[in-house]
From TrEMBL:
Family classification: Belongs to the Mrp/NBP35 ATP-binding proteins family.
The protein's name in its UniProt record: Iron-sulfur cluster carrier protein
Chain sites annotated for binding ATP: 111-118
Domain spans labelled MIP18 family-like: 6-76
GO process annotations (BP): iron-sulfur cluster assembly; mitochondrial respiratory chain complex I assembly
Domain of life: Bacteria
Gene for this chain: apbC
Organism: Magnetospirillum aberrantis SpK
GO terms assigned for molecular function: 4 iron, 4 sulfur cluster binding; ATP binding; ATP hydrolysis activity; ATP-dependent FeS chaperone activity; metal ion binding
Subunit structure: Homodimer.
Needed cofactors: [4Fe-4S] cluster
UniProt lineage: Bacteria, Pseudomonadati, Pseudomonadota, Alphaproteobacteria, Rhodospirillales
Length: 363
């Protein structure tokens, strides 16, 4: 079968009209970021955020007409915010803070994927909850969401009013992830600007309630997507996770520099998979060298928050949806996360005593 083309997708989307404006969404220039790969299609429909609810049926209809094309396996359409189309000067709406009931937000980032960022975010969030704090965990890694699996949550979020979503909950923390909204087998091939639109929508639509702290599991890397998240979210601070090799390769330094560039305080560095604990004899083996993060943190004048060993129990518990801090809170590994959480919370409070909560908000 001939490979599906962008033109075919746009052709199909001409069947979908914007009900308020009478014309089709392609003619109105609302479709952007069409990506087609091996039968998987993704695109964005740019909308005025005020019309999000009204445009949801349009989004569904758009998915449906593309799904009907021969050779299409999956379709993901997202609504993204667009500035008001008319050039007439408008009174700027009063700036609404993005997450008014969230007292502090920390990003957990890494220079590259696979260093244990999601494992760290989850156990850190659980350790903060163990300190009696109200905690939310937001999975911003929309390319590879892990929270449904790591927190052992299945099913879809409820929307009692048809407008907002209730976060999912397990092990005493609230959580939202794009993974609850798309099927696991759907590859997500959104482009940078679409990512921000989708995250923005997800953050705004979730009824988090009051939170002392929100932990954000960032997408891996230090590219434009990560930069724009760091700029757009009202972050209190950032934590960098790295492995000893990652430190040697200076990937961690890139993460650090990214946050410094946008004036987000770096709370410190965590060394993950720091050493290996032999499951038979309990001996520690420093496979990748040891202490690199501590020395590197000092060189970069960032705090060293702690180290977590490479241990099968950490992987098995998070794969099973029962992260070690929740399932074995008295184990030495859980204690390592708890100590890191205590340091993080101290730093967050210190920063907040100097300023009054998150200030930045979305356009
Ligand atoms: N300290 C650790 N010990 C053992 N396995 C770990 C540890 N940290 C992470 N892992 C495992 O490594 C893999 C990648 O971790 P993950 O947290 O998904 O990384 P990232 O989010 O950075 O891509 C997962 O299978 C996870 O269970
Ligand atoms: Mg991850």
């Amino acid at each position: 079968m001939a490979e599906l083309t962008e033109a075919q997708v746009l052709g199909a989307l001409k069947q979908v009209a914007d009900p308020a404006r009478g014309a089709d969404i392609v003619a109105l220039g609302l479709v952007s970021g069409v990506a087609v790969k091996n039968g998987h299609v993704a695109f964005a429909i740019e909308i005025d955020p005020a019309r999000a609810k009204e445009m949801e049926p349009v989004r569904k209809a758009a998915e449906k007409v593309v799904e009907a094309l021969p050779g299409v396996l999956t379709v993901s359409a997202v609504l993204t915010a667009q500035r008001a189309p008319q050039p007439a000067p408008q009174a700027k709406p009063a700036e609404r803070p993005l997450l008014p009931q969230v007292k502090s937000i920390i990003a957990v980032a890494s220079g590259k994927g696979g260093v244990g960022k999601s494992t760290t975010s989850t156990n850190l969030a659980l350790a903060l909850a163990g300190m009696g704090l109200k905690v939310g965990l937001f999975d911003a890694d929309i390319y590879g969401p892990s929270m449904p699996r790591m927190l052992g949550i299945s099913g879809q979020p409820q929307s009692p009013d048809g407008e907002t979503l209730l976060p999912m909950e397990n092990h005493g923390i609230k959580c939202m992830s794009i993974g609850f909204l798309v099927r696991e087998e759907d590859p997500i091939i959104w482009r940078g600007p679409m990512v921000m639109g989708a995250l923005n929508q997800l953050l705004r639509d979730v009824e988090w309630g009051e939170l002392d702290i929100m932990v954000i599991d960032m997408p891996p890397g230090t590219g434009d997507t990560q930069l724009s998240i760091s700029q757009n979210l009202p972050l209190t601070g950032a934590v960098i996770v790295s492995t000893p090799q990652d430190i040697a390769l200076l990937d961690a330094r890139k993460g650090l520099n990214m946050f410094r560039k946008v004036d987000v305080p770096v709370l410190g560095l965590i060394e993950n998979m720091s050493y290996y604990v032999c499951p038979k004899c309990g001996d520690e083996a420093h496979i990748f060298g040891h202490g690199g993060a501590k020395a590197e943190a000092a060189r970069l004048s960032a705090e060293f928050l702690g180290e977590v060993p490479l241990d099968i129990a950490i992987r098995e518990t998070s794969d099973a949806g029962t992260p070690i801090v929740a399932s074995q809170p008295d184990s030495p590994h859980a204690k390592a996360y708890q100590a890191i959480a205590a340091k993080v919370w101290d730093k967050v409070r210190l920063i907040q005593s100097g300023r009054k909560g998150p200030k930045i908000s979305f356009e």
